[in-house]
Structures are given as structure tokens and as C-alpha cells.
Design goal:
Elements: H1 5-13, E1 15-26, E2 30-33, E3 38-53, E4 59-62, E5 66-72, E6 75-79, E7 93-94, E8 100-103, E9 111-120, H2 125-130, E10 136-138, H3 142-156, H4 162-179, H5 190-195, H6 197-208, H7 216-222, H8 227-238, H9 242-260, H10 265-271, H11 277-288, H12 292-310
Parallel strand pairs: 1-8
Antiparallel strand pairs: 1-9, 2-6, 3-4, 3-5, 3-6, 3-9, 5-10, 7-8
Helix pairs in contact: 1-4, 3-4, 7-8, 10-11
Length: about 325
């Protein structure tokens, strides 16, 4: 069975209900944000502005642009015109139509945008996010702006099955954004690995058959490269060694199986490539920090708490 590694990673991330809002800017303004790794996105609906994220050059954003920071830390957005410290905005003004205005509330806007955060519920979110580019900037893809509008509309509405619809929209949004990125400026990670035709073959083999007893030599043969060339090329593209990626993927799958299915430890071990439950338990304990049986019990307890939270009348409200 052919599997799409990028779709698998996004699905395992379990993107959940976002916070999103429509915003606009007029005159000179600058908004500073200090984050702790939340996924942030922005779609420019009209006009232009600027975005500066830690570790990246400033980007001039134009109408139709889409930006995704899978794990955002410090960043700022500002007017297209140069700003001074006096132009920093601490609180936006909510206009009668619900739009959040930064800058002059009385002038016509120079830019309109949709911004927001989503949540990756997977316990492996940090690991999986590390496989993605640190910053995604897509220009001129109308499908993304349409998807963002759908996300914003659904987030503000109180329609039945809203959370389910949002989760599906977010999965599509993330996949669409990631596969729209060009190959030249992508940071090391899964996406860059998939743009290398030879390395992509090896990554797909890992995802198609994680239970196989892969070696570097076998993966190199799949990629039709020498062992040394494959090892060096894989590390440069993905940001980690082939066996490190294989282990990380196996453990992510194992945790997902233990959370979602009532499978035995032996069955999970076999499905992720271990010859015995004991060998798998040792590897899992070393990687995760506790044995798989204890992890599964904790995950079951978490599901009960989540079910109770989902039954609360306040669940799903947007702040």
C-alpha cells in the first residue's frame, strides 16, 4: 500500500480547533508576540505588511500570501511602511464588524489578514513538528486563501460538528501549505527530504513498511545510492540520520497505536518492526521514558478525561 509520509505526519499531529480572527492594519503599526511553540498561521487577504520571526529574515507579505510557523516562538507583524518603537501596538481595536484593527482605527486599511493558532494534540507534537520546515511561506496559491476563509468562518460559527469539520479543514490546510512550498529555501526536515527524489523513495519505504528490519544499506539500495552517499544526503536533507528517523517514526506509530487501539504489546511490537515484546519494551522505555504498558494505561486515563471534557457545555468555545 502506497502511503503519503507528509499526510501521515499531519494526521498524527492531530490538529485541533484553532483560534483565528480577521484583522486589518492602517497607518504605521507593529505587533510583537512572544510564543512558546504554538503553530501560527497568517493569510493576507488584501494589501501588504511585514513579518519577522526569530531565526529568519523579514518577509514582505502580499495579497494571497500564506505563512505557517509550525512551532512559533518570537515573531512580529508590522505595517509595510517602516515603524518606530512608538508604533508598537499592545491591544487591537475591535471594529463594529468584528474585525481587529491595529494602527489608525479611522483610516482605510492598508492590509487585511486572517491570523490564528491551532493546537497539535499529539504527545509527539514536538518530534513531528521538528520534521517540518521552521517557516513556510507560500505565495500566489488561491486554494490556501480559500481554505483559510473556510477555517475562519467555521471557527466563528456554532454549527453542529464544528470541531470535526475544523480538524479536517486544518489537516487539508497544513498539507496544502506544506506541499506548496518550493524546494530551494526549505529547511532540513521531512518536506525537504521528500523533494529529493532519491531520499523520498527511502522515506516512503520506511512509512510503507515500518515493520521491516531496515538497515542503512537496504535503504540506500532502495534509493539507488551508495551507502555513504545515501547516509550523508539523507542527513543533510532530513536533519537526522536514517536510523534515527526510522526509530522516531516507529516510536510515533507505537504511541499512536497504544493510544488509539486495544492492541497487545506484542502486536504493537510486531507492527513497528520488533522481533519480540521485550525488545520493543526496552526500546520504547528508553525512547519515551516509561514502559509501553504504563504509557497505554496513562493514555486510557487521558481518553476518559477528554471524554468528560468533551461533554462539558463550555467545550469548543472560542476565546
Amino acid at each position: 500500500m502506497l502511503l503519503d509520509p507528509l499526510a501521515q505526519v499531519v494526521t498524527l499531529l492531530q490538529p485541533a480547533t484553532p483560534f483565528s480572527k480577521r484583522g486589518s492594519g492602517a497607518g504605521r503599526w507593529r505587533v510583537l508576540r512572544t510564543e512558546v511553540g504554538r503553530p501560527f498561521y497568517c493569510a493576507i487577504l488584501e494589501g501588504a505588511c511585514r513579518l519577522k520571526a526569530d531565526g529568519h529574515d523579514e518577509i514582505a507579505l502580499e495579497e494571497g500570501d500564506f505563512v505557517l510557523l509550525p512551532s512559533a516562538y518570537n515573531f512580529s507583524m508590522s505595517s509595510h511602511s517602516p515603524t518606530t518603537p512608538e508604533d508598537i501596538v499592545h491591544t487591537s481595536i475591535v471594529l463594529p464588524d468584528g474585525e481587529h484593527r491595529v494602527g489608525n482605527p479611522d483610516d482605510s486599511p492598508d492590509v487585511r489578514f486572517l491570523v490564528g493558532y491551532c493546537v497539535f494534540r499529539s504527545p509527539d507534537a514536538a518530534l513531528l513538528s521538528s520534521l517540518l520546515p521552521k517557516l513556510v511561506h507560500v505565495r500566489g496559491v488561491d486554494r490556501l486563501a480559500t481554505l483559510m476563509q473556510l477555517v475562519g468562518d467555521e471557527a466563528r460559527a456554532q454549527r453542529p460538528a464544528r470541531d470535526v469539520v475544523l480538524e479536517r479543514l486544518l489537516e487539508v490546510l497544513l498539507i496544502e501549505a506544506l506541499r506548496s512550498v518550493g524546494t530551494t529555501d526549505t529547511s532540513p526536515g521531512l518536506l525537504r527530504g521528500l523533494t529529493d527524489e532519491r531520499i523520498a523513495i527511502a522515506i516512503r519505504r520506511i512509512h510503507e513498511s515500518p515493520e521491516r528490519p531496515w538497515t542503512v544499506a537496504q535503504l540506500a539500495n532502495e534509493a539507488t545510492l551508495s551507502r555513504s552517499a545515501f547516509y550523508e544526503r539523507f542527513g543533510r536533507a532530513v536533519g537526522m540520520a536514517p536510523m534515527e528517523y526510522l526509530l522516531a517514526w516507529r516510536m510515533a506509530l507505537a504511541k499512536d497505536l497504544l493510544r488509539r487501539e486495544k492492541a497487545s504489546i506484542a502486536d504493537v511490537a510486531e507492527r513497528v518492526g520488533y522481533s519480540s515484546a521485550s525488545t520493543f519494551s526496552v526500546a520504547f522505555s528508553r525512547h519515551v521514558g516509561l514502559p509501553p504498558a504504563r504509557y497505554a494505561r496513562g493514555a486510557s486515563f487521558d481518553r476518559v478525561l477528554q471524554a468528560e471534557a468533551d461533554s462539558s457545555p463550555e467545550t469548543g468555545s472560542i476565546a
